[in-house]
Amino acid sequence: PAVLEGFVNFTAEVSVIAARSPSGEVACFDPGENVHRDGILHTTTVPARLSAAQRMDAVLLAAKILNALDYVGVLGVELFVTRQGFIVNEIAPRVHNSGHWTQNGCAVDQFEQHIRAVAGWPLGDGSRYADVVMENLIGDDMDRVPELAKQRDTALHLYGKADVKPGRKMGHVNIVKRPS
């Protein structure tokens, strides 16, 4: 846990994955709601449980940070949700674990968006076409892979790490709920 977490009365943590091109074009993915276990991201659920106004405020805040930094590429912005609004918890200058849901929930994911941004190409459409729960596979969670592989609308992303260790991210799974 970060130092700030002990002093802030927050109801949730959300992340906005955002990209900015050299020309200043900005594109943001929908905010995801994060749950941590033992200080490690366990799940990110999209859409986050935010009002439409909160979603807009979170996206605008992420865009403001990108522009203020004159940043090029993908940036992960973690926000505490409080009764008074948002407090920035972390800024990660890279593709981010909480954005892995984009691999199966958007036509253009955070990885492609990063390449587009740093190459100076037009940013892609990061609109979400499905609700997604991303779950990190940590340590012995790898024992669940055969069962997870049987589940419909579940995409496994394994990192190819040889040694399974407690607390080590071994991969993630995206559970996709497509609109009916």
UniProtKB/TrEMBL annotation:
One of its GO terms (cellular component) is cytosol. Keywords: ATP-binding, Nucleotide-binding. Residues 61-119 form the ATP-grasp domain. SUPFAM superfamilies: Glutathione synthetase ATP-binding domain-like, Rudiment single hybrid motif. It holds the Pfam family PurK_C. Signal peptide: none annotated. One of its GO terms (molecular function) is catalytic activity. PANTHER family: PHOSPHORIBOSYLAMINOIMIDAZOLE CARBOXYLASE, PURINE BIOSYNTHESIS PROTEIN 6/7, PUR6/7. This is ATP-grasp domain-containing protein. It comes from Sulfitobacter litoralis.
